[in-house]
Amino acid sequence: MLTKDNLRGWGANVDEGMARCLNNEAFYLKLVNKGIQDPAFGKLQAACESGDLDGAFDAAHCLKGVMANLALTPILQPVEKITELLRKRTAMDYGPLLAEIDGARASLVALIEG
Amino acid sequence: MAERKQMNSIPDMNAEGRERQVLIVEDDFVNREMLKANLENGYEILCAETGEEALAMIHEHSGTLSLVLLDLNLPGMNGLDLLQEIKKDMDLSRIPVIVLTSDTESEVKSLNAGANGFIPKPYPRQEVMLARILRCIELSENRDLIRWTERDHLTGLYNREYFYRYAEQYDARHRDEPTDALVLDVSHFRLINERFGKAYGDEILRRIGAELFAIVRENGGIACRREADTFQVYCPHQEDYEPMAGRVAAAACGDSIGRIRIRIGVYSCVDKSGEMERRFDRAKSAADTIRHSFTESVAYYNEELRKKEMDAMRLMDDFQAAIQQKQFVVYFQPKYNIQAEEPVLCGAEALIRWKHPELGMISPGVFVPLFEGNGLVRELDNYVWREAAAQIRRWKDRLGCSVPVSVNVSRIDMLDPDLADTFCQLIRENRLEFGDLHLEITESAYTQDAEQIISIVAGLREQGFRIEMDDFGSGYSSLNMIIKLPIDLLKLDMGFIRHAFSADGDTGILKIMLDIARYLSVPMIAEGVETKEQMLTLKELGCDIVQGYYFSKPVPAEEFEQFFKEEAKEHADKG
After folding, report:
1. B160-301 — its CATH code?
2. Residue B436: which of B445, B427, B446, B449 has the closest Cα?
3. pLDDT value at residue A5
4. How many CB pairs under 8 A join A and B?
5. Does the distance separating the beta carbons of A35 and B30 come in below 8 Å?
6. Which of B1, B30, B35 is the mutation pick for testing A, counting most A CBs within 10 A?
7. Do A65 and B102 touch (CB under 8 A)?
8. Residue A86's closest CA among A50, A58, A65?
9. Does residue A36 have a pLDDT over 90?
10. Which of B2, B33, B283, B425 pairs as cysteine with B265 (C-beta 3.0–4.6 A)?
11. CA–CA separation, B212 vs B214, rounded Å?
């Protein structure tokens, strides 16, 4: 079960995220639950795989905003990296960065489900 | 707790005491809910997830919405497109928009599209967001208050006074750019109002205002409603304004059946050393030249118009001196009764001429319309009445005879409450009979405020004056109204004579007009009679009195004495 403390232990900047949620813990955790299911994760993956760099940038940009607002630092860091690369439409293999995002996300999901 | 106190201390009501309404346009659930939670204690929150949904809500709540918080990355219509839609619509453009972005590149694009501010992602502290939002709303509300004083309330465009101030500012920013002054109006707008009602007329004006707003937004410049159905635009120079006339006319029509015509007067590449208001007076002069045209939509101020204006100004400047120095001379044109075996002198019409010391003889056709336009015609008419009355007295004294003299009474004179007293005084001072002075009132004077004019004319008749209706047939009087008119004589409009005796004319309409005079039991005068043939035809048709070059052009008083002498000789010969 997700709590403020285990989220902090996972690496989130809980104080910052909580402040944006009026220090309402239940509300913050509810938004984290929603954020981790954001459809932009799937869109980013699919767009990168199909070479649609415009679509990939839009999805990454969107995810960056959500992860930053929730202060989910372990996911935010690779999302920021991929956003900046996609902004320049850099032709490269995005697999490792996507894997990093996916790994951080999976660890948070495990925390929630655990 | 500290934060809650902070929120409660924020004045979150609008001027009407209602909670201010804020629309959050954000497709992402987390961002939207977070923002909503931060604001909902101080504002009434509306939410939209797509650009299309947001635009519909903005239209629906345009009167009450205090702010739009806009994410740029939206499915369908994106945030930037939505922002442009809002800012190009005159009603919506007053609503401030704060863009939610984490991207400096987007900030520049948003500012260019009219964004009023930014909130970055990740969101800053609640106090920062609230302060930024409140500041933006207050600035916009203050701007609304200023707008209220500087705007025309029907169309939302600038009013005339502020328009000139903004036009000066526009000049300061576009010092070396060629600029045009335009005056636009709706052809026969009064008829549209009368036919379809004022509410429809107002709707037309609103549509024109919205279209002009869109045009100046696209092309640069500023627009205002000058008055009634007249608009002004000050904008970068263009070669051709026909497309603008067509575009505004199409917008004015909307979906309605029928056609609305827009006229545009253009003062092209204005002389920026001249006064701002004069620039638009010039554009208006140009527009007035196509007032009666059904084919032209655009007219340009040119050298010919400029000369006409300068001449008009000169005549207006010279008017007072002309009155004082008696440069205006009254001429008299004889009228003959043609129903006797030989024509008999039976009256005269007093007609004004201007012997200008530098410009020579000026036709009344040049200066009378000018003085009618600025009200000086009252003074001019009074001058003619005094001169005519004094001349009748002189004839009576010198020759022992006279004829009734008709003087013109302009429509504006009819509104003078002292009109009857003025004429009575002239009669007294010159020891005349009421029948010595006939008052010619043009038919068109009766068509506006008919009841009031009829009552004034009836009063003059009761005093003993004889009333002639001038230009009969040109003023669109209804037959029903003519029956009620208190008149002693009908003076047929010169156009009927011209038509009847033109190459393809016929006298049928003359017969009808004469029948009307007979039905009303009043004599008919025909003016503009130039030939014996015309005179004989009119005599045969039963016209009583004739005036025109066939007998004599208008002549000075001394020359007119010749007609008295001829008349006396005729009598003596017969006797």
Report:
1. 3.30.70.270
2. B427
3. 93
4. 55
5. yes
6. B30
7. yes
8. A58
9. yes
10. B283
11. 5
Residue type, B450: A
Low-confidence residues in chain B, pLDDT < 50: 1-11
List of chain A residues whose C-beta atoms are within 8 Å of the C-beta of residue B125:
19
A61/B126 CB distance under 8 A: no
Query: At CA B182, angle to CA B176 and CA B186, rounded to 5?
Result: 165
Tell me the nearest-neighbour CA distance from B13 into chain A, angstroms.
Answer: 22
Q: Enter the tokens of residue B437.
A: 């002075």
By a Cβ cutoff of 8 Å, what residues of chain A touch chain B? 16, 19-24, 27, 31, 34-35, 38, 40, 58, 61-62, 64-66, 68-71
User: Can you give the pLDDT at residue B445?
Assistant: 72
pLDDT of residue B11: 43
Q: Which residues span the domain enclosing A23?
A: 4-113
User: What CATH code is assigned to B322-563?
Assistant: 3.20.20.450
C-alpha triplet A33, A36, A37: angle, nearest 5°: 90
Instruction: Using alpha carbons, list the distances in angstroms from residue B559 to B13, B327, B346, B373, B529.
Output: 85, 18, 16, 32, 20
In chain B, where are the structural domains located?
2-150, 160-301, 322-563
A chain contacts of residue B33, beta-carbon cutoff 8 Å = 31, 34
**A62-111 confidence digits (pLDDT tens):** 999 999 999 999 999 999 999 999 999 999 999 999 999 999 999 999 99
The distance of B89 to chain A (nearest Cα, Å) reads: 28
User: pLDDT tens across B208-225, in order?
Assistant: 999 999 999 999 999 999
Q: How many angstroms separate the CA of residue A64 from the nearest CA in chain B?
A: 9
| Closest residue by Cα to residue B524 from B535, B536, B516 | B516
Percent of chain A, pLDDT > 70? 100
The reply to whether residue B30 touches residue A19, judged by beta carbons under 8 angstroms, is no
Residues 6 or more apart whose CB falls under 8 angstroms from that of B453 comprise: B411, B414, B441, B445, B446
Shared fold status for B160-301 and B322-563? no
3-state secondary structure B65-112: EEEEEEECCCCCCCHHHHHHHHHHCCCCCCCCEEEEECCHHHHHHHHH
One DSSP character per residue, A28-96 reads: HHHHHHHHTT-HHHHHHHHHHHHT-HHHHHHHHHHHHHHHHHHT-HHHHHHHHHHHHHHHTT--S--HH
Cβ neighbours of B30 in A, within 8 Å: 31, 34-35, 38, 66, 69-70
Complex ipTM, two decimals? 0.95
The answer to whether domain B2-150 has CATH 3.40.50.2300 is: yes
How confident is the model at residue B9, as a pLDDT? Answer: 37
